[in-house]
Amino acid sequence: MRVAYQRTAADDAGMTIVELIFAASILFVILTGVLGLIGQTTLMTADAAQSNVMTSAVNAYVERVQGLDFEQVAIVGETPDGVLLSVETTSVNGYTVEFRPYVANRYEIEGDPNSKILFKDLHIDVTLIRADGDVETMSTMVVIRDRSEFLTRAERNPATDPTIGFLGGTPPDSTVVYDANWMDGTTQRALYLSVRVDAVTGRTIDSVWIDIDGLWLAADYLGNRAQWYPGIQSWSMSSFIWYTRQKEDVVQADGSVIQTEAIPDGMRRVTVYAEDSTGVRVSATRSLLVDNRIPGNAGTPAPVMPGKATSIDIAWPPAMDGTSEAHHYGIWALRMKTTEEVTADPSSYWLPVTLTGNTALPTAGYTMTTQPFTRYLAYVRAYSPRNLASAANVWVAEAFTTRPLLTGTYTITGNKVGPTWYYKTAVDLDVTPPNMHTWSSTSYLWHWRYSTGAEGSRWTSVPELQLATSERAGAPYQLEWWVDVYYTPAGTTWGNGTQKMVTSNRLPFNGTAVGTFTFDEGTW
Fold it and tell me: Which of 444, 440, 316, 426 is CA-nearest to residue 373?
């Protein structure tokens, strides 16, 4: 006769092979996800670092070239005065950065190399090489002008200088822009960079251009550059739409050319320049906050110890969003269930916690309101100005436990024998038991310290202690109290499954008056 046997929760005969295989499968799926998140976090952090190094290196290179004499802005060997190397390499923070410049002259008479050179377009192909061989490339173009020429050709004078400014269709300073758009309240508008330039009577506006951070000429969706040669006294442009995802040609090692997005997220300086027929140059600037991409992942959050029983500070390394820190952060938390809660619902050990003001944190930190001697998990996410979320939730490396709260009363009694008073102190102490699911038993090591420096201790298996001192002539004993709690949080992940110890607050020394008193919270 075959008999069906069903195991119950009360059975303690171990796990079957089928159960072991099933548990191992679940653990494998969890570990695969966690390892994937770790790899993605590392990659996003490395990408942000590379972008910052490349931007800084390009800025430094361009500033150095702009400081050269105009005749020197040429490749060595192409002109007698040229000083730019065809390939220049430098090291920045462990990265190798390679510059390949190309200079195109702009002549007063277009196509006539014997006419005067008005300015030079400096094209730069940049390659960044990480120590592990990873490569990132970009290209940019900067206009180089003959400073001595326009300084000597005309005197700057407010009465005769051209006037320049952005027109009303251009978004205000600090506006968040993306793709070719910006938000005017709840209305999405096209990202016009509208300008007007006027020269004084007898002069004309020879050239107008708009650049981004002094590194890139602004471009529209079709790749048309924001560079014009009006040749008239008054000129305006109200139809140019800046495409913040503009692309630049990048030459690969094999000679092929690919296009990559050039403008990094972050606050960008948008400047319109104009130069009149006497060489006087004027400019106007708007600062616009580019937000095309999701920010990088934040660093691993961690509690800042020591924390109190009812609050704890959590901090994490900031995330980068292009060249700026992430606009804001969100933090979420889970609480480990108590043993009673797990018994009622064994499907999970964790419950979500409601956190106040947790989704618009301007800095990488949060003060979390907690319960005494409770175990928590937390994770954070970085957000861009448009509320674009980072790729992954970044969890704490290990669940964390708040400290138990020690409370109690003490009673001082007096007994006069002849002319001498004798005092005795009795304490009744309670400490928070584990407010979480635990394995095995919890034990308590109580400590007290006399004002003389002598100490005593006692173990208990319960979260309470009653103790009385011996009589002392002249004054009661002065003691300080605290307790170390040894516990084992349930589970095998997030640092659970092994015995841990946490220390309570320290109750202050007793008073000297006869009577019964309540301890205050003391120190942490």
Answer: 444
